[in-house]
Design a protein that fits this description.
The chain is 76% helix and 0% strand. With 232 residues, it is mainly alpha-helical.
């Protein structure tokens, strides 16, 4: 008995379904174990990543708390625990490590061990893993400690790129460069730099005061216009 078109289509659908089921069963028998293994490994990797994220955050918070304690002691004029500082200088986070190194160098300098402080600052300056602002600050502090032993031109060559009006370290670097200019007999270069520092609101007040006095001694008016100051 011949199949009607409707019966023929239904039969073909059943055949297709049977073929698909058979193919799926064959595929599962061949690759099922590997798919399960891949799924398990993927879940394990994801779980490991979540744990690592949590562990890193916890570790970072712990290091941050220790660094805050060290900085608080140093800011108060005290001497932080040497072991704590040494541990922090090995931190995996470059910012924490740089801050700890600055504290360590500063502590050595206050104790009169300029050689140790200079060595730390020099190493920081050469450490490309640290952010540039930390390296620049280390170079300025290193130069300040070495200032009397350096030729004035060496100071200028080192710090002139940082002694630019508007730059983050303009005050600290500019003061050293301006003094070096004076030592080389170039008051015409030193005076305007002192005046610029005196008028720069971003320069620390202590440096501005000294710069204003030096500019005055060199015959340059560095006194701010009261009206301009009020308007600002």
């Amino acid at each position: 008995m011949a199949l009607t078109p409707q019966n023929s289509e239904a039969f073909m659908r059943e055949v297709d379904e049977a073929v698909r089921q058979d193919q799926l069963l064959t595929f599962w028998e061949r690759y099922g174990r590997w798919l399960l293994a891949a799924l398990v490994l993927g879940l394990a990797a994801f779980g490991g990543w979540l744990y690592w994220q949590h562990h890193s955050k916890t570790q970072s918070e712990a290091v941050s708390e220790k660094l805050d304690a060290v900085l608080s002691v140093a800011a108060g004029g005290g001497t932080p625990d040497a072991k704590e500082i040494d541990a922090l200088t090995q931190a995996s986070q470059p910012g924490y490590r740089a801050s700890a190194l600055l504290v360590k160098a500063g502590t050595a300098s206050r104790k009169g061990d300029s050689k140790a402080a200079i060595a730390i600052y020099s190493a920081m300056t050469a450490d490309t893993k640290l952010d540039q602002p930390y390296r620049d600050l280390a170079l300025i502090r290193q130069t300040a400690l070495e200032f009397d032993a350096l030729r004035p031109q060496q100071v200028i060559d080192r710090l002139k790129p940082l002694a630019i009006e508007g730059a983050p370290w303009f005050g600290s670097a500019g003061e050293l460069v301006a003094i070096a200019y004076m030592k080389t007999g170039k008051p015409d270069l030193a005076g305007p730099m002192f005046a610029a520092m005196a008028k720069d609101a971003n320069v620390p007040q202590s440096i501005r005061s000294r710069a204003r006095q030096m500019a005055g001694l060199l015959g340059i008016d560095a006194v701010e216009n009261p009206a301009e100051t009020t308007e600002g």
